[in-house]
Amino acid sequence: MTREPHHVQSLERGLAVIRAFDARRPELTLSEVAKICDLTRAAARRFLLTLADLGYVRSDGRFFSLTPRVLELGYAFLSSLSVPEVAAPHLERLVAEVHESSSLSVLDADDIVYVARVPTSRIMTVAITVGTRFPAYATSMGRVLLAFLPPDALSSYLERVPLARLTNRTVPTASDLGAELARVREQGYAIVDQELEEGLLAIAAPIHDRSGGVAGAVNISAHAARVTVEEMRARFLPRLLSATAAIDADLRRTT
User: Fold this and answer.
1) CA 2, 148, 172, 220 torsion: positive or negative?
2) Considering the domain boundaries, does residue 92 fall inside one?
3) Residue 145: which of 181, 196, 98 has the closest Cα?
4) Helix (H) or strand (E) holding 253
5) What pTM value is reported for the model?
6) How far is residue 110's CA from residue 137's CA, in Å, rounded to a whole number?
7) What are the φ and ψ backbone dihedral angles of 249, each rounded to 5 degrees?
C-alpha cells in the first residue's frame, strides 16, 4: 500500500498494538501481539513497554492487557459529539415502550460504531457496548447509514468491501446489497433478519442534523424467537420513527 509522505508508521503500529486487544483477546503475550500486528518481537516489546509507560497497557510479567485509560481515547470523540447526549432520553423512552434494546450508531469507514445504547435485561449472544463495531452491510443501522451515502461513496463501498457470510442469511453479493439499500432509501428504514447472528432481528431508521444530513441511525433489536419481521414493521416501526423524529427535532435545536 502506498503511503502519503506525511504518514507516521510508528503511530500506525502503536495504534495497531492497542487494537490487537479485544473482547476475545483481553490478554496477550508479547509473541501474540507480534504475530497479530505483523511485528518483530523486539518492535512489539518496544510498543508495549511505551504504552505501559503511558498508562495504556499493564503486564503481569507474561501477559499484557489494556488499562481503563484507553477509554480516554474514545471519550475524546464521544465528548465532542452531541448526538448521543441528545438521543439518550429518547432511547430510554423507546426501550420502556417496546421492552427491547435500542442503540445509536454512526458510520466509521466500513463499520458501524455504537455511540449510545440502552439495553434490556435479556441476554443476547452478541455482547454490545458503546464502542462496539460491526460490519455495516450486515446490520440494520449499517444499512440505513449506507443507503443515504452520496452515490460515489456508496459505489466505492460496494466495490471495495467483501461480504463475509456471517450466517446463512447474510446478503450474498454486492448487487443484492445494492438493491436492498435502494429499498431502504425509498422506505426510510431497514430490517435485518438474522444476517449478523442467528436469532438476532433488528429494525433501524436514520436521524438527521440541522442541514438534513444523516447524523446516525437508531435501532430496536430483539430475538427472532419472540418477534417476527411483520411485528417489527407493525408494532416497532411507528415507535421507532416517533423516537427518531423527536431526536431530529432536538438536534435542530441544539446543533
Assistant:
1) positive
2) yes
3) 181
4) helix 237-254
5) 0.70
6) 8
7) -65, -40
The verdict on 100 and 64 lying in the same domain is no
Q: Of the residues 43, 72, 101, which one is the last residue of a structural domain?
A: 72
Range of 23's domain? 9-72
Residues contacting residue 200 through CB under 8 Å, at least 6 positions apart: 124, 125, 126, 194, 221, 223, 224
User: Which residues of the chain fall below pLDDT 50?
Assistant: 123
Q: Are 14 and 47 in contact (CB under 8 A)?
A: yes
Q: Same structural domain for residues 16 and 117?
A: no
Q: Residue 218 in contact with residue 247, Cβ under 8 Å?
A: yes
Residues 93 and 188 in one domain: yes
- CATH number of the domain enclosing 122: 3.30.450.40
Task: Tally the domains of the chain.
Answer: 2
Torsion of CA 194, 199, 200, 202, to 10 degrees: 70
